[in-house]
Structure formats: structure tokens, C-alpha cells
């Protein structure tokens, strides 16, 4: 029997990259998956079609995780389609590298609204949607919260806040049988990081990161998805409040 057989999962920001890999990996483990997206409808549809072609069930749902009305609607669509939730993956996130001189109030609120408020609102609204046996919440943080790279003051701060939220809510939600953990990717090649020119170009920056990574390569979305799937399963039943740095040893 598959380890997530008959489990119901919601993955925010699931239209591409790490989110898409998570949705596909959860489905491969037996879960039915709702893939949420903000703007990339075609990407989300491609993910759900791929899951369905593999013999699993999936739907795509539009919504902005920083908007409570959108979250309520998304959760209603998921539970109407599949029943009570078992797994929530807060993957939706945004970033914009900039030096301190370029920081603006608008950019601060843009990143914190999605990266911090979004997971908080999603978890809050999801609580009535879990079944009597509880479930698993996995937040997708970032290695930036520990590595604190130059030019990422807002993003690193937002992901540090998410680390704290993970640990706090693990204690708050344990009596409900809901585990809360975080997976913090290191340097990971995805559509977003490639289009931003961070990885996949063979740049000096990328080569330096590879040289600093004990496992000797840039990570991939499936690397992260496998860790998330483990945390969603009963195999991780004794884990809550953990912030797992999935970085190939890069610190």
C-alpha cells in the first residue's frame, strides 16, 4: 500500500518548480492533490494533467495566499472535491534580491504578505478542514534563513519568521494531532531560480556554491519533494517543530 494512500493534500504555489515536484511526489505516494496557483493557470493545469496521466487524482485551484477570502474559497473547493484535509504544504513564496539601498516598504510588504502572512492565514483557515486524526503541515522555508546571503535582507527575514511560526504552531497544534514542520531548501535549480539567472548557467556564483556543497551539486525540486513526502507520511509521526535544511550539506 502506498504510504499516502487516500490522503488529501493541498499544495500552494504548485504550478512549477519545487511546488510542482511536491504535488507530483505526493500523488505518486497515493495522495489526491489540490494544486493552488496565483497567476500561472497553464502551469497548474499541466501539473494536474501529469498527475492524472499517472493514474492519480488532482485539481488546480486559483487563489492568492495573502488574501483570506481566496484561502477560504480554495479550502472549500478542496474539501468539496475530496473531503477532509490530511496534508497542507505552504510552498507559495516570492523573493526579489536587492541591496539595502533599494529596499522599499512596498517590497517588504509584498514578500512578507506572501511568505509569512500567507502560511499563517492558510494554516488558520485549514484547521476546521482536517479530520479527527489530525494531519501534517509542511512549510517550505529557505536556507536563506540560516545562510543570510547578501542582498536578501527581506527574503531571509521572511523565511526566518516562517521558521519561528513552524516551531510555535507545532506546539499549538500538537493537541489536535497536527504536526508542523519546515523544509528549507538550499541552492535549488528550478524555473524560478533559472530565469533569475541564479543557477543553471554555469556562472562563477553557481560554481562557488557547488564547491561549498559537500554533496557536490545544485539541488533539484525532486530532492525537496521527497523530504516533504516523508514528513507528510506516518513515517515522520514522531517529528514536529523541525526545520530541516535540505541543502546537500551547504550551510
How would you describe the shape? globular
CATH homologous superfamily label: NAD(P)-binding Rossmann-like Domain
Percent helix: 40-55%
How does CATH name the architecture?
A: 3-Layer(aba) Sandwich
One letter per element, helices H and strands E, the order comes to EHEHEHEHEHHEHHHE
Compute the CA-based radius of gyration: 17 Å
Number of helices: 9
Secondary-structure class: alpha/beta
What is the CATH topology? Rossmann fold
The tally of strands reads: 7
Q: Tell me the name of the CATH class.
A: Alpha Beta
Quickly count the domains.
Answer: 1
Major sheet attributes = 7 strands, parallel
Low-confidence stretches: none
EC number: 1.1.1.47
GO molecular function: glucose 1-dehydrogenase [NAD(P)+] activity
Domain Ketoreductase: 7-192
Protein name: Glucose 1-dehydrogenase
Structural notes for this entry:
With 251 residues, this protein is of the alpha/beta class. The chain has a single domain, classed as Rossmann fold. It is 45% helix and 15% strand. It has nine helices and seven strands, in the order βαβαβαβαβααβαααβ. It has a seven-stranded parallel sheet with strand order 3-2-1-4-5-6-7, with helices on both faces. β2 (32-37), α2 and β3 (58-62) form a beta-alpha-beta unit. α1 (17-28) packs parallel to α2 (41-53). The radius of gyration is 17 Å and the shape is globular. The chain starts with 7 loop residues before the first strand and ends in a 5-residue tail after the last strand. 47% of the residues are buried. The mean pLDDT is 95. Its EC number is 1.1.1.47. It comes from Roseiconus lacunae. Belongs to the short-chain dehydrogenases/reductases (SDR) family. Residues 7-192 form the Ketoreductase domain. This is Glucose 1-dehydrogenase.
Amino acid at each position: 500500500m502506498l504510504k499516502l494512500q487516500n490522503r488529501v493534500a493541498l499544495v500552494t504555489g504548485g504550478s512549477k518548480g519545487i511546488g510542482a515536484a511536491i504535488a507530483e511526489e505526493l500523488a505518486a505516494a497515493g495522495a489526491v492533490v489540490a494544486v493552488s496557483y496565483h497567476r500561472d493557470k497553464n502551469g497548474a493545469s499541466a501539473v494536474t494533467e501529469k498527475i492524472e496521466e499517472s493514474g492519480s487524482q488532482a485539481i488546480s485551484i486559483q487563489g492568492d495566499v495573502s488574501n483570506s477570502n481566496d484561502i477560504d474559497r480554495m479550502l472549500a473547493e478542496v474539501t468539496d472535491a475530496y473531503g477532509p484535509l490530511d496534508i497542507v504544504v505552504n510552498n507559495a513564496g516570492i523573493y526579489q534580491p536587492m541591496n539595502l539601498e533599494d529596499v522599499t516598504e512596498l517590497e517588504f510588504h509584498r514578500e512578507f504578505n506572501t511568505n509569512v502572512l500567507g502560511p499563517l492565514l492558510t494554516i488558520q483557515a485549514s484547521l476546521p478542514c482536517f479530520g479527527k486524526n489530525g494531519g501534517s503541515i509542511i512549510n517550505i522555508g529557505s536556507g536563506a534563513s540560516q545562510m543570510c546571503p547578501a542582498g536578501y535582507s527581506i527574503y531571509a527575514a521572511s523565511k526566518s519568521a516562517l521558521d519561528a511560526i513552524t516551531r510555535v504552531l507545532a506546539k499549538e497544534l500538537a493537541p489536535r494531532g497536527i504536526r508542523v514542520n519546515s523544509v528549507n531548501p538550499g541552492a535549488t535549480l528550478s524555473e524560478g531560480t533559472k530565469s533569475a539567472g541564479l543557477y543553471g548557467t554555469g556562472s562563477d556564483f553557481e560554481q562557488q556554491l557547488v564547491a561549498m556543497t559537500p554533496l557536490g551539486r545544485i539541488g533539484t525540486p525532486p530532492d525537496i519533494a521527497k523530504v516533504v513526502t516523508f514528513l507528510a507520511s506516518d513515517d515522520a509521526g514522531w517529528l514536529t517543530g523541525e526545520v530541516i535544511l535540505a541543502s546537500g550539506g551547504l550551510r
